[in-house]
Amino acid sequence: MCGICGYCGKNILHNKEIIDQMTATLIHRGPDERGIYNNKDVALGARRLSIIDLARGSQPVANENKTIWVAYNGEIYNFHHIREELLARGHIFTSGSDTEVIVHSYEEWGEDFVKKFRGMFAFALWDSTKEALFLARDRIGIKPLYYTLLPDFTIVFGSEIKAILKYPGISKNIEPKALDCFLTLEYIICPLSIFKNIHKLEPGHLLKYHNGEISIKSYWDLIEATQVNQEIHGMSNSAIQEKLAALLQESVKYRLISDVPLGAFLSGGIDSSSVVAMMHLEGIHPVRTFSIGFSEQSYNELAYARKIARLFSTEHHEEIIEPDAVDLVNSLIYYLDEPLGDYSIFPTYLVSKMARKHVTVVLSGDGGDELFAGYEHYKAQKLSKLYNAFPGVIRKHFIESIIDGISPSPKKKGLVNLCKRFIDGVKKSPFLHHYRWTVFLNELEKQQLYTEEFKAELGEFSFFDLIEPHLEKASHFDAINAELYMDIKTYLADDILVKVDRMSMATSLEARVPLLDHFFVEWAMSLNGTLKLHNFTSKWILKKTMEHYLPKDIIYRRKEGFSIPIKNWLKTDLRDLMEATLSKENVNGDAYFNYACIDKLKKEHLSGHFDHSHKLWALIVFYLWKKQFLG
């Protein structure tokens, strides 16, 4: 696991301090070693977190005649099999690392080489004979990669934006579309970044830079991959369960490859518990498990995590988060690089920090909700069809007016809060699909919040423009899988995986995600959606499968989610932070937002009659990010 950076072009600045400074920003991603390669047209930098072949795995890595170089972030879990194939074809290796496999795979298979890899990765490969630079990102988007093309046709890239910003002349202008997207969804959809002209390389894509020009192509398509798995449609439910368990165990087995200690995040939910169960089956005794809890009981899942820990006799570690944990916010925003409104950055960081005291690698259960319909908005989308069967006058004047008049509950998932979220969603356009329940700032609210200057910059842009390219492809799936596909392409890649990568790497911890093995994803997305959302039971086929391994009260308990009680904390421990950050002076210091609207949001939230925690926290994050990155 590493952080990578570099630049390439005919006009690059030949100053070793630049690549040194870029690489230094990534020290948290790779504290064990620094490596740099320089020539007249390219500079590659790598920070290494030693996981495999600790003695000989230094980067960047070259082929025998030093014509091909690679800087690499991630893990290729099938590298042993590829290595054996390459050895049989006459290739010579000087190490046992997976990084060297990338170099020889390119020599053997050319630009199709990336299709051979099973894992999570982002890498830069320089071919001096062709004077071409290749940037690649794994299929699902587990590992990040940013790039920009400068006016002099130099390409600059990095695992994180902060590395790119160290290259002289990089503009720091905010991208209005990205800011609007962030305030709408709490994350920024790929390929946008918060900065104009700095882009995310999309998952499953290969970028080629040659003669000052960039070309990008997809090397993996989930739709095409699922169409191959036609045998699923004739399988019985019991056969599907057997296959699902076998694939999950295989995926976990691949992710146990390590020359350093490893463990697992354990929330006590079905996804992380399933991963721990499979680690136990693979002979990891004891599995080291790590959990985070809260003093507020409606947010605390430690009892479930403890039950799984006892069941599999794990070496279990846990901590309680208190509100003062949010003192971390400035340092966490530094590691994020971009505004991200996901509250669960705090528990993710703290559980990573705790785990890093004991291990260097952890397995997590991320991805299960997007593959097996675990989120409430999938149920809400289905329920909305039944709700719309009621006459409009009953919906508007009875149900909706009553729900709107009730104050939100302080409990995390009280019935009132669920009803309020549902009603708020069904009022929005059905063309937003399930995003109706994950939009935190609607068009009317934007008109009130945004200044005229910001509206003019945005023009006719809508965040819908960013999800529309995925909608046509989603139509190849059944209704439920279509929604899962949209979340895999947006929410999973641009929120969940960003959060896990940045917060784990902030502590120099490698997080592996067995449920996002691309073979497992392809197979799971080939299953009919009704096996996932069965009536109103989410993750039905996964739950039926795991009945053979886990207690039913773990499998069928209500999903809580990995979050913090932010709406309550904003009224108490975080009130001073909110008032200082969203002060009149701060807000009026730029041309983005109307202070009167923000002031109204604060007062309504503090009154307890409204829950504006998502909107307020997103604004707080933006202003803290802006101060840190723009001054």
Automatic annotation (TrEMBL):
Q: Which terms does the record give in the GO molecular function aspect?
A: asparagine synthase (glutamine-hydrolyzing) activity; ATP binding
Q: Which SUPFAM superfamilies match?
A: Adenine nucleotide alpha hydrolases-like, N-terminal nucleophile aminohydrolases (Ntn hydrolases)
One GO term (biological process): asparagine biosynthetic process
EC numbers for this chain:
6.3.5.4
Active-site residue list: C2 (for gatase activity)
Q: Does the keyword Cell inner membrane apply?
A: no
Q: Which InterPro entries match?
A: Asn_synth_AEB, Asn_synthase, ASN_synthetase/amidase, AsnB_N, GATase_2_dom, Ntn_hydrolases_N, Rossmann-like_a/b/a_fold
Q: Where is the Glutamine amidotransferase type-2 domain?
A: 2-212
Q: Where does ATP bind?
A: I292, S364, G365
Give Gene Ontology CC terms.
cytosol
Q: Which UniProt keywords apply?
A: Amino-acid biosynthesis, Asparagine biosynthesis, ATP-binding, Glutamine amidotransferase, Nucleotide-binding
Feature type site, description Important for beta-aspartyl-AMP intermediate formation = D366
The reaction(s) this protein catalyses: L-aspartate + L-glutamine + ATP + H2O = L-asparagine + L-glutamate + AMP + diphosphate + H(+)
Q: Name one Pfam family in it.
A: GATase_7
Q: What class of enzyme is it?
A: ligase
- The protein's annotated pathway: Amino-acid biosynthesis; L-asparagine biosynthesis; L-asparagine from L-aspartate (L-Gln route): step 1/1
The residues listed in the UniProt record as binding L-glutamine, with positions renumbered to this chain, are D98
**PANTHER family in UniProt:** ASPARAGINE SYNTHETASE, ASPARAGINE SYNTHETASE (GLUTAMINE-HYDROLYZING)
**UniProt similarity note:** Belongs to the asparagine synthetase family.
**Protein name as it appears in the record:** asparagine synthase (glutamine-hydrolyzing)
What is the native source organism of this protein?
Candidatus Fischerbacteria bacterium RBG_13_37_8
